[in-house]
Amino acid sequence: MTNIKNIFNFKSVIELLDYFKDEKTCISFYEQVRWNGQPVCPHCGSFKTPYRTAKGFKCSEKLCHKKFTVKVGTIFEQSHIPLRTWFAAIYLQTAHKKGISSLQLSRDLNITQKTAWYLLHRIREMLRAKEPVMLKGTVEADETYVGGRDKNRHKHKRKGVTGVGDKIAMLGLVERGGRVYAQRIKAPTREVISPVITEHIELGSNLHTDEHGAYIEVGKKYNHKSVRHILQIYVDGDVTTNTIEGFWANLKRGIYGIYHYTSEKHINRYLDEFCARYNTRHLGEDERFENFLRQSESRLTWKRLVG
C-alpha cells in the first residue's frame, strides 16, 4: 500500500514529476488517494471488492458488473491526457498565487492552448466548494467590479451602457482569519446582496462593510458596523474591510495580469479558483495538492462548458 505521508514532501513541480515518472505510478497513487486502498464502484456505489482487470476493475455486484477505472466519475474521466500531465497542471494552477494562463500552461506542458484551456476549467470545477459555505465571527463584506468600459469595446460589442453598469459585479465575504466566499451578482443592490449575506453568514455575527446602503437593512440581523470610505476612513478600531479588499486586489491582478479577460459566463469559475487558493493558504504545496486531489470527484464536459 502506498504511504502518502512519505510521498507528500515535494516543494516544486520538478520534485513532483520526479516521483510521478509514469502512468502506472500515477494511477496507483490516485487509487490510494481516492479510495484509500478499497475501490468503490462509481456506477452503483458498492464497497464490495471488485475484480481486477487489465485496465482497471469490474464491479463484483451481480446487478452491476460494470467495468471502471479510478478516473471514472472524476475530472480525469474520458481524458486522453496522462495523469502525470494532469498532476503537473493541478500543481501549477494551485501553487501560483495569481493562477496560470492557458497559453503559458500549453507551453509548459507541451499541449495545445485549447486543451490547456479545457484542462484548467476542469480543475476549476474540482476547486469549486462542494458544500455550502457558512461564515461566522467577524465577517467583512464588499462588492467590486471587473471588466472594461463599454466605450473601450469594439463598436459591435458595445452594450449601450456606461459606468459600472457595463462591468461584471461581484460580492465577496471573508471571515476574519478564516475562509472567503465570492460570487458574481447581477447588481450591488439591497435585493441582491441581502439573500447572499443571510445564506452565507451566521446570524448574530459581526458584519463589517463600507457605507454602501445595500448593507443597512440586512445589517440589522447582525452586529453591523461600517467604515466611511468616502471620508477616507479605512480603519476604525477593529472595523475594516481591508481583508476582503486585499482578496479583491489579488483577484484583479490575476485577471488583468494573467488571464487578461474573463467572460460573465465563466467568472464564477475563476472566483472558485481564487477562493480555493485563499482558503488553503496555510497549507504547504504538497498538502494543498493532496487536499485538492481528494476533491476531484466532479465532471465538466466540453458540451456543458461551452454550451
Q: Can you tell me about this structure?
A:
By secondary structure, the protein is an alpha+beta fold. The chain has a domain of 127 residues: Ribonuclease H-like superfamily/Ribonuclease H (Nucleotidyltransferase, domain 5, 2-Layer Sandwich). The protein is built from eleven helices and ten strands. The strands form three sheets. The chain has a five-stranded mixed beta sheet, with helices on both faces. It has a three-stranded antiparallel beta sheet with strand order 1-2-3, with no helix packed on it. It has a two-stranded antiparallel sheet with strand order 9-10. Strand 9 and strand 10 form a beta hairpin. The mean pLDDT is 89.
Distinctive features:
307 residues, alpha+beta, Nucleotidyltransferase, domain 5, 5-stranded mixed β-sheet, 3-stranded antiparallel β-sheet, 10 strands, 38% helix
